[in-house]
Structure formats: structure tokens, C-alpha cells
Specification:
The complex is a heterotrimer of chains A (about 250), B (about 130) and C (about 425).
Chain A lengths: L2 E6 L8 H9 L17 E5 L2 E5 L8 H5 L5 E3 L5 E3 L9 H5 L6 E2 L8 E2 L5 H5 L5 H5 L5 E5 H14 L19 E4 L19 H8 L2 H36 L1
Chain B lengths: L10 H4 L6 H21 L8 E2 L11 E2 L1 H4 L25 H5 L34
Antiparallel strand pairs in B: 1-2
Chain C lengths: L1 H11 L5 H23 L1 H4 L10 H13 L2 H11 L9 H22 L8 H4 L6 H27 L3 H9 L1 H21 L17 H28 L5 H28 L11 H22 L1 H5 L1 H31 L7 H24 L17 H4 L25
């Protein structure tokens, strides 16, 4: 099963049970930061009367996994994008590149690592729900198979079209994510970028990287050719000069 | 039936409000459903009342009710995880803990709420088995 | 007697000049910052944050540093692949600059990385889809190439003839590999930013970023050769080889023009130039970068009378370097600030460490010039120290200038051999 989280903002009452459960599950410090940090992996933000959760979107084609030079991020078949701290060298490219600004750094540590929500990958493997979904008292956060969550989201949009903005956020953004969101107000008002491309971002760098073999091959041949031609020209000149010297 | 527009918020302002009573009924249905949905959301799925482990010399089991306590604060983070675990509750507290301001004692200290004193009445907490507050 | 005493004294205590004082202050401050960085972490020593994870140490030390060391591959290509042997005298100082430049970049990276002791991870943990992986490997390999290109100078000093010959024998393939590796990583440093089209300001974001980075690096490398020669002239009382540097100035005009046209064309096509009518913060920085760092050097260096004279040539080159630094910082800092929602300015510690590393580079350059056969003519007269015996006793064939000897000839000019 490819797991995904469905967050329905219309059901969220901002109780922060998800925040608390996440803190407990991951042994994070109790202090709750207003925005995501290395020590707070999910937050609930209030915009007027609406609430929005911020957490890792667990993209289908994760930018963080693509940019990490040592493959410290991995998209699991079960849904989560997980981070292997033992590989991380601290280059912070993931923090720079993530379109949702999710990965955060332990700036206060002498030996820091990146931290972000891992969709409770170990709980999922054990057949449980992520902690946030397990404790949500209103069902604003639920967890299940991605296709089923999409169906559920579609059903809700059809059943109460006036209650929602007709969009399942995460369905297609940057190639789709495993955290889907529904909202009653435009997502931009909730602080979620409306301008992300529908194609995965890693395609942009792959366009450049895929040319590397060509540069090596063509470049090598070209440079060798230049050397060969110019070198030959010099040798021919020298040979002619030597001949002229012999005669003269 | 109202059609789902392609982009967010594009339909209502553009379509002229001329379609007559059918549109009116559709709007009303939608409004009722939305309100109903919101009301349903208020039916919180809280953990059931939980009994704490009865210690030696305790007059009766302490039973904690979420239903009662969520009226205290709209945020679960007021108590979780600072004072109480959520996923794996310990279900253990002593008067000593409370007097140190831990666990229930963070509020039940005689000032914010009644404290663990004889004057307050032991049975306010030690309700015994099978009873909810 | 007095003169001998003076000479002896000067040999025990090196003279404290202004620049030596500057170096000592920078070195001391840099050491303090280094200790703080490793004991208290990045948050305590830099103005970096989750909103702004890459700052001066990446934008200047790494991005700019790598570009300014680009002379290494351009000049070696000119001499060894295009066979323009008359440029041989500038190979050694250029390779030295490049080698020190890359060492500087790696050292700076060791401070910026969160866990620098794991820098070797890229050797065994691979992600070929990552631009940073490619950069890491290319920089590692190219630094090795530079070390090899530099080694004959050291072998010569140590009179190790056999290793010198071995490296000399592979000079052409080595230079080819060096040019390819340089092309790859100079452009890839630009490719790093391809993945943030929604974050990098349209005045700098472009699908052509790798091309911009590569072409500007070529110009910067050439400019560095000119400026570095001017600095050596002042420091070591060298004669500035205008006959060699002036053609580099001319080449700079061509390269900068290509770069300028590419940038403007790309911006026009994407409609990004419209915002310049009433330039805000980003617009002003862009105009400064292009005007001061591209247009002005092109104009100056295109005028033969300006280019043929030292002040004009060096000014043109210096402006180009300024423009190059501005471009890299505009891409990494200016262009990223709006999307990040924060204004970033490096902390004094970030600045201090970067300056300390630059100062160390200068110092190493000076040491190398003093103890290694970098320059064919004796550089020691200005400092009042006796030239070492090996330099005075060297065979005439090591002297640059005169007609170029054919490759393979034992008395071939002092280049990489």
C-alpha cells in the first residue's frame, strides 16, 4: 500500500493534537515553534478562521532526494520520504531546494543534522497510522492508501462543493505528493504556494546532468583534435625549417 | 447541480445570478451541508475515559475524562506533551508528582483548580472503578 | 660590520610590513572564528538560517572561488592544446593560483558543511542524479589534476627528475581531462540553481544558468591572470609581460561580449527585462553587475590604447572580476532573498573567516614564489633576501622568452615540464 495523508482544513479545529503526538513519537523537545524547525516537524497555522497544517509533503518525486549528493533521502514504496542522518554531510542543498521549504537544520548543534516529518515510517511498516492521524479528534488528518485518499477527497468535493475550493492540493503539484490537502479558502491564503509547476523539479537539473556524457565525449574528441592539428602544424613548420637550414 | 469550476473561485463572480429557483435550492442545499459538515466536525473523537493505575493506599481508582477537560483549553498542546504522553500514556501519577507541579499538579494545585487535599474531597478524583465523572 | 649585522637581523626577524600585519590580524581572527564554528555550530557563527541556508561561504568562497581559479584550465588549454607556446611563462603562476584557489574552496567548504568530517561520503555514497554529487566529484578530480599539473614545479625544486618527466609525458591528456572537468563543474555550479525556478529571481534564473556560469568563468580566469600579474609586479618587482597579457585582454572582450549578449537575449526572451524600467533592489543590483562588471570592461578593453597600457588593462580586468563576484553573489544571495522572505548579510565571523582564507591564499602564493621555481626571473631581489643557489645556478634553458623549443626537447621552455 502506498500510504498518504489527507488533511481536510474544513475539519481542522486547530487543537494541535497532531503536533503533540508528533513531538512524543519522535522524542522532540516539548516547546512548539510557530513554524517548522528541526525540533518541530509539524505545525498548525491559523489564517482568520481556517487552520492549515504544515508538514513534509512526501512528494512522489522528491526534490530533496534528487539533490542530495549522498542519497540521504529516499522515497519509500510505502509512501514516506525518509532521511538517513548517517549519510548526511550537511551541505543543506535539500533545505535550499525543497519547493515546500520543509527540511530544517539543527543550527544550534556542533554536529547538526537535517530534520523533517517522516510520516512515521516505522509505524506504517508495523501496520499502524502515523501519530498525527492516530490522534486527530476530528478526522481532519486521516491516513490510508493514496488512491483511496484521492477518492475520498474527490467524494468530499462532490458532496459539498460550496464548502471547498475545488482543488486537491498535492494531487499534481511537483508531480504529486503523498500529503493531500483540502481547503475552504484558496490555498494561497493559507500560505501555500499556488505557483509550483506540475512537473517534478528534479527534471530541471536532469536536463543539464544528462548532457555530461556528451560533454565528456565530444569535448574530449574536440580538444584532442585541436591539439593534434596545432601540434602537427608546429611540427611541419619545424621540419620545413630544418630542411631549409640543411640546404642553406 | 452546480458544476465544479476549473479554477478556484472563478465561477460565482462571473456567472450571472439569473438561473432562477433551481440555483437557489442548490445554494441552500450546499449551505446546509456545509454547516452540517462543520457541526459534525465538532463531534470530537476523543480518547475514552481512562483509569489510572491504583497505587497502594489509594482510596480508589482515578478516572480521567477528556470530555470534561477539553473545555479547559482548545489546544491539546496545553497538556500534551509537556505534561502527559499521548500515544503511550503512563497512567501513573502520585500526589508527590502533583505537588511538584508535574502531571495533573500543573493545574490541580489549589489555585488554577482544586488541589490534592482532603478539604477538596478525595472522591473528586478517586471515583473508583467503572464510574465516569 | 654594521651591514652584516643588519643583514643578519633581517634574516632572523622578517620585516613587519602593513600587509604582513593585516595577514596576522586576519589569521588570528580566522583561527578564533574557526574554533567557534566547530564548537558552537553554524547558528552561533553565521547569519544562515532555514530561510537562508547558503550564504557568503557558498556564494563567495565556493562559487566565486572556483570561478576565479578558472585561469588554470584556460591558460593550460591555450598553451598545451592550442599550442600557443608564447604564453608559457604565465602557466606556472596561473596553475599555482588555480591550485591554491581550489584548496581555498575545499577549506572553505570544510567550514560551511555541517559535518565536514564526512566530506568523503560522496566518494562511496553516490547519487548521480544530484548536481552537487557531480560538482563534488569534478572538484575532487580536478584538484587532483591541478596538483599533478603543479607537481613538476615541486619535483624540479627537489631535483626529482624522473617523476618530473613522467608528469611531463602526460601533460596533454592531463590538460584535456582538466578542461573537461572544469567545463563540467564550472557549469554545474550554475546548474545547482536550476532546481529553484520558484525561488531565484527571474533576473538571474534561467535554463541557461550552466552556460552563464561557464562563460563568465572563462572571462574571470583570464582577468585573474592579468590582476595576479599586476599584484606580483607590485609584490615582487616583476616586469609585467604586457605582450602576453594584452592578448588576454582582447580575448576577454570577446568572451564578455558573448556572455553579455547571451544574458540579455535570454532575459529579453523571457520578458524579464521589463522590470528594469523602474528597477527595485534586484534591478539595481543587476544593472550594477552588468554595467560595472560586463559593459564597462568590454568598453575599456576594446579600446586598443587603453588595453595596451598597464593601468587600462588592469582596471578592465579588475572590473570584470568585480562583475564576476557580483554575479555569483547576486545569484546566491540577492536573487534568493525575496523568496526566502529574509534579507541576508553575512555575520562578521563569516566575513572574517573568508578574508582569513583569502589572506592565507595570498601568503601561500608568496611562499610558493619564494621557494619554488614559479617565475623564471629571480623574484627575490625586492625582499632583500639572497636568491637560493639553485635559482642562480639553473641552466639557461629554464629562462623563458626567446624562441620556443619543440615539445619533447630536453631544454623545452619552463612550463609544466
Amino acid at each position: 500500500m502506498k500510504g498518504a495523508i489527507l488533511f481536510d482544513s474544513t475539519k481542522c479545529i486547530g487543537c494541535e493534537a497532531c503536533v503533540a503526538a508528533c513531538k512524543e513519537k519522535n522524542n522532540l523537545p516539548a516547546m512548539i515553534d510557530p513554524k517548522l524547525t528541526a525540533y518541530t516537524w509539524t505545525v498548525v497555522e491559523q489564517r482568520n478562521t481556517a487552520f492549515i497544517r504544515r508538514l513534509c509533503m512526501h512528494c512522489e518525486s522528491p526534490t530533496c532526494a534528487s539533490v542530495c549528493p549522498v542519497e540521504a533521502f529516499r522515497k519509500e514504496p510505502s509512501g514516506p520520504v525518509i532521511y538517513d542522518a548517517s549519510r548526511c554531510i550537511g551541505c543543506r542543498y535539500c533545505i535550499m531546494a525543497c519547493p515546500f521549504d520543509v527540511p530544517k537544520y539543527q543550527w544550534d548543534r556542533a554536529v547538526p543534522i537535517v530534520q523533517k516529518c517522516d510520516m512515521c515510517a516505522d509505524r506504517i511498516k508495523a501496520g499502524q497510522q502515523p501519530a498525527c492521524a492516530a490522534v486527530c479528534p476530528t478526522g481532519a488528518t486521516i491516513f490510508g492508501d493514496r488512491d483511496e485518499m484521492i477518492q475520498e477527497a474527490r467524494a468530499r468535493l462532490e458532496a459539498a462543493p460550496k464548502a471547498y475550493v475545488p482543488k486537491i492540493y498535492g494531487l499534481e503539484e511537483v508531480g504529486g505528493t503523498s500529503v493531500l490537502m483540502l481547503s475552504s479558502i484558496p490555498f494561497a491564503s493559507l500560505g501555500i504556494r499556488p505557483d509550483l509547476p506540475l512537473t517534478p523539479l528534479p527534471a530541471l537539473t536532469w536536463k543539464a546532468l544528462s548532457k555530461v556524457p556528451d560533454i565528456v565525449g565530444v569535448g574530449g574528441a574536440l580538444l584532442y583534435g585541436i591539439w593534434w592539428i596545432t601540434n602537427r602544424r608546429i611540427r611541419v613548420q619545424e621540419a620545413l625549417a630544418q630542411e631549409a637550414a640543411k640546404k642553406g | 447541480m452546480v458544476k465544479l469550476p476549473r479554477t478556484a473561485g472563478s465561477s460565482s463572480e462571473e456567472e450571472p445570478v439569473r438561473q432562477g429557483w433551481r440555483t437557489g435550492v442548490a445554494w441552500l442545499t450546499g449551505a446546509v451541508l456545509a454547516l452540517g459538515g462543520h457541526a459534525a466536525a465538532q463531534q470530537l473523537r476523543l480518547p475514552p475515559d481512562m483509569a489510572y493505575t491504583k497505587a497502594e493506599g489509594s482510596p480508589g481508582k482515578v478516572v480521567f475524562s477528556h470530555q470534561f477537560h477539553v473545555a479547559v483549553s482548545e489546544k491539546c498542546t496545553t497538556c500534551h506533551v509537556r505534561l502527559f504522553r499521548m500515544l503511550e500514556p503512563t497512567r501513573q501519577v502520585t500526589h508527590a508528582d502533583m505537588e511538584a507541579g508535574k502531571s495533573c499538579g500543573a493545574c490541580h494545585n489549589g489555585q488554577m483548580a482544586f488541589g490534592p487535599t482532603e478539604a477538596a474531597g478525595c472522591s473528586r478524583c478517586h471515583v473508583g472503578e467503572g464510574k465516569s465523572s | 660590520m654594521r651591514k652584516d649585522e643588519e643583514a643578519m637581523n633581517s634574516r632572523r626577524w622578517p620585516e613587519m610590513t602593513f600587509w604582513r600585519l593585516v595577514f596576522l590580524v586576519l589569521a588570528a581572527t580566522g583561527t578564533v572564528v574557526a574554533v567557534l564554528r566547530f564548537t558552537r555550530g553554524l547558528g552561533a557563527t553565521t547569519n544562515l538560517s532555514d530561510h537562508f541556508p547558503w550564504g557568503l561561504w557558498i556564494g563567495f568562497d565556493v562559487l566565486t572561488g572556483v570561478g576565479l581559479a578558472a585561469g588554470g584550465f584556460t591558460i593550460t588549454a591555450v598553451v598545451y592544446l592550442f599550442n600557443l607556446k608564447r604564453f608559457t611563462p604565465i602557466i606556472r603562476p596561473t596553475v599555482l593560483t588555480a591550485f591554491l584557489g581550489y584548496v581555498f574552496v575545499i577549506l572553505a567548504l570544510l567550514f560551511d558543511l555541517g559535518q565536514p568530517h564526512r566530506i568523503w561520503h560522496a566518494l562511496v555514497m553516490w547519487n548521480p542524479r544530484s548536481v552537487m554529487f557531480e560538482v563534488a566529484w569534478c572538484v575532487m578530480l580536478y584538484t587532483t589534476v591541478l596538483a599533478l599539473e603543479f607537481s613538476p614545479i615541486v619535483f624540479e625544486r627537489l631535483n626529482l627528475e624522473r617523476p618530473r618527466r613522467i608528469v611531463r609525458a602526460i601533460s596533454v591528456p592531463l590538460v584535456i581531462v582538466g578542461v573537461i572537468l572544469s567545463t563540467l563543474h564550472q557549469s554545474s555550479l550554475g546548474s545547482l540553481y536550476l532546481i529553484v525556478p520558484h525561488k531565484l529571481h527571474p533576473l538571474w534564473y534561467s535554463p541557461l544558468l550552466p552556460v552563464f556560469f561557464f562563460v563568465s568563468a572563462i572571462a574571470a580566469g583570464l582577468a585573474m591572470v592579468i590582476v595576479e600579474s599586476a599584484l606580483c609586479q607590485r609584490a615582487f618587482n616583476h616586469h609585467l609581460k604586457m605582450d602576453l597579457l594584452e592578448p588576454l585582454g582582447r580575448a576577454m572582450v570577446v568572451v564578455l561580449s558573448i556572455y553579455g549578449i547571451l544574458r540579455v537575449q535570454d532575459l529579453a526572451r523571457r520578458g524579464a527585462l521589463l522590470g528594469l524600467r523602474r528597477p527595485g533592489y534586484e534591478g539595481s543590483m543587476f544593472l550594477l553587475e552588468m554595467g560595472l562588471g560586463v559593459l564597462l570592461p568590454i568598453i575599456l578593453l576594446a579600446i586598443p590604447r587603453v588595453r595596451a597600457r598597464q593601468p587600462g588593462l588592469v582596471t578592465g580586468a579588475f572590473l570584470a572580476i568585480l562583475g564576476f563576484v557580483m554575479h555569483r553573489l547576486n545569484v546566491s544571495v540577492t536573487g534568493m532573498e525575496r523568496a526566502a522572505g529574509v534579507a541576508y548579510f553575512p555575520s562578521w565571523m563569516e566575513i572574517a573567516l573568508s578574508l582569513a582564507l583569502v589572506a592565507a591564499g595570498f601568503a601561500m602564493f608568496g611562499l610558493a614564489v619564494r621557494y619554488l621555481p614559479i617565475f623564471p626571473e629571480a623574484p627575490h631581489r625586492a625582499s632583500g633576501v639572497e636568491a637560493p643557489a639553485w635559482l642562480l645556478a639553473r641552466p639557461a634553458s629554464m629562462v623563458a622568452g626567446g624562441s620556443p623549443e619543440p615539445l619533447g626537447h630536453p631544454s623545452a621552455p619552463a612550463g609544466m615540464e
